[in-house]
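As a point of orientation, let us examine one representative protein, giving the amino acid sequence and backbone structure tokens.
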Amino acid sequence: MNRARTPPSDGPDTAPGLWDKVAFLSDPASYPGAERAVRRVQTHMSVVFLTGAHAYKLKKPVKLSFLDFSTLERRCADCRREVRLNRRLAPGVYLGVVSLNLAGDGTLSLDGPGDTVDCLVKMRRLARERMLDAAIETGRVDEPTVRGFAAVLARFYGNAPRVRVDAGRWRRNFARDILQNRDAVAEPRFGLPVRVARAVGDALIRFLEMHGDLLDARVMAGRILEGHGDLRPEHVCLEDPPVFIDCLEFDRRFRILDPVDELAYLGLECEMLGAAPIGELVLDSYREITGDGPDPRLVAFYRIHRAMLRAKLSAWHVLDYEPGEHEKWLGRAGRYLELAAGHADKL
């Protein structure tokens, strides 16, 4: 794999636009080998092209409140960062960065002649049925499987460099985020139960006031590290050994966390799929391997906080998607809020 070149600017006005690139990358003839079909998957931030054995991710030139992919230089830098960070937990999956190049005659190619007009992350394609969410849906997750991938995570956290943070600031950041999540979920335009959203948010604030020392203790014990950042079942592949993909690469702040917080988040997402015992087994395995057994009230706090964050993000999708998608996203937001309220008595 040739290393992607990053030009100093986005190039001339004649450079191909996003949908010119998408059209080229949707053509099986654009790839090496005898590809017969390309399947395209689109998200807000990227377009993924699935060939027989590989996946290629193209970043969209978007600029949002939490990321900036508006220039070629930024997109290529993020591609390199994505590969580097994801190789921590998926070393054989992230194969490298590929240049999308434009020749003098206007021909696009992958790693071919000409100037780089974009970059793509190249991955080994994973079997859909081996992803944890798919395995949950088909009832193919047993205790040895869960303990196996939990052990990989425990070793990862054990070897991860610790990050020094100020305990007071750490607690204040949680308070700020709790209030932002509460107020967003309670916005009348989303039609979610306002009283429930406010009650859950207020319960989290009371926890900080009464038991914030539990958070302080995690900081003082050196438990804060740079983790995955977006550990959900659809990012866990049950290969041998298991791998974990799609870490949150674009902002380091979101990867700085307590590993118990990250595992509580995974447990929440398993609960959303009707498999709450998987999350509990992951935490039990982590405790047994590491000897790190935080207060159950702190675990509940993390899970409820994550549920409110996910409720907010789901509700916000109403602002991004067509009306036909609104019911789905508001339904998800309501389910996260329901789970948050259901765990509130554990605080």
In short: The longest strand covers residues 115-124. The mean pLDDT is 94. The chain has ten helices and twelve strands. The chain has two domains: 18-125, 132-346.
